[in-house]
Design a protein that fits this description.
This protein is α/β, with parallel strands linked by helices. About 45% of the residues lie in helices and about 15% in strands. The chain has 8 helices and 7 strands; from the N terminus they run E-H-E-H-E-H-E-H-E-H-H-E-H-H-E. Strands 3-2-1-4-5-6-7 form a 7-stranded parallel sheet, sandwiched between helices. Strand 2, helix 2 (about 40-50) and strand 3 (about 60-65) form a beta-alpha-beta unit. Helix 1 crosses helix 8 (about 230-240). It is globular and about 50 Å long. Bound molecules: NADPH dihydro-nicotinamide-adenine-dinucleotide phosphate. Belongs to the short-chain dehydrogenases/reductases (SDR) family. One of its GO terms (cellular component) is cytoplasm. One of its GO terms (biological process) is secondary metabolic process.
Length: about 260
């Protein structure tokens, strides 16, 4: 791998917003080498070859087995990156789950559902970031303006400010567990920003807006004004490219809210 490439790891990139983010970056510039984080390596391999066949592709892509809830998988992925590239430039923490549909009331389901959501959406982001920080610290992009980046794919629904504001469209009940997980993720993002800004890191929260993926019922969210998957990918890719650097340390996106 040529040292001139910017190495970007995107988690949960075999479909949805992660996939579209990868494709957008690779169509945009030859400078990106995307590591396509996928739970299943076989699906990752077929997704990577699907991306490679896209007309006009400029960048390069490698599938990487990565289940963000598995410490062994995180360790193997980290060792692969270290051995193959020696460093990492940009980490996009995109993998996420919504959890059970609302209405589940029995205590053990509530507990296991919330535990799984927190593990996937928050704890995995912490473990993965901590594991990969040494590789990000060796980023070739350490000199501004090309600093290493940590991007937490989050949501305005996790904003405490918005949730508490009676004038906000987010001032409504529902999806409490998912929203609490994104609130925690936002705090994690701010904590990393405070901790790492002195070391030349850029840390972002990025809200793709309401996007019609498998995450929520596609047809229902389309009726609520959801954008197409590629638009969600474009929004996250713009943060990767540095177009939203004015919003560093905040949850940037359509709504530009603070955590
Ligand atoms: P999708 O359900 O379409 O895709 C989710 C991706 O995450 C899949 O690739 C999935 O892999 C992966 N994933 C889930 N669990 C794990 C795991 N344990 N390890 C590795 N990968 C995992 O969702 P979206 O693309 O819509 O969402 C992506 C992110 O964007 C999420 O963090 C979500 O919270 C956020 N977001 C989405 C919005 C929307 O409207 N869609 C709005 C705001 C934020 P697999 O195929 O193996 O299941």
């Amino acid at each position: 791998m040529g040292s001139e490439k910017t190495i970007v790891l995107i988690t949960g990139a075999n479909r949805g917003i992660g996939y579209e983010t990868a494709k957008n970056l690779l169509l945009h510039s030859a400078k990106y080498h995307v590591l396509l984080g996928c739970r299943s390596l076989s699906r990752g391999a077929s997704t990577a070859s699907d991306i490679q066949s896209t007309p006009g592709l400029l960048g390069t892509v490698t599938p990487l087995q990565l289940d963000v809830t598995s410490d062994d998988s995180i360790k193997s992925a980290s060792e692969f990156i270290k051995t193959t590239y020696g460093h990492l430039d940009i980490l996009v923490l995109n993998a996420g789950i919504f959890g059970l549909p609302p209405g589940t009331v029995d205590p053990s389901s509530l507990r296991s559902n919330f535990t799984t959501i927190l593990s996937t959406n928050v704890i995995s982001a912490l473990v993965l970031t901590e594991t990969l920080l040494p590789l990000l610290s060796h980023s070739r992009n350490l000199s501004p303006p090309h600093t290493p980046r940590l991007i937490f794919v989050s949501s305005s629904v996790g904003s405490l400010t918005q949730a508490a504001d009676p004038e906000s469209k987010y001032h409504q009940p529902g999806a409490s567990e998912y929203r609490a997980s994104k609130a925690a993720l936002n705090m994690l993002m701010v904590q990393y920003w405070v901790r790492l800004k002195g070391e030349g890191f850029l840390v972002h929260g990025a809200d793709p807006g309401l996007v019609a993926t498998d995450f929520l019922n596609r047809e229902q969210v389309k009726k609520r004004g959801a954008v197409e998957e590629w638009v969600g990918g474009e929004r996250i890719a713009s943060v990767v490219r540095g177009d939203r650097d004015a919003d560093v340390g905040r949850v940037c996106g359509e709504y530009g809210v603070s955590p």
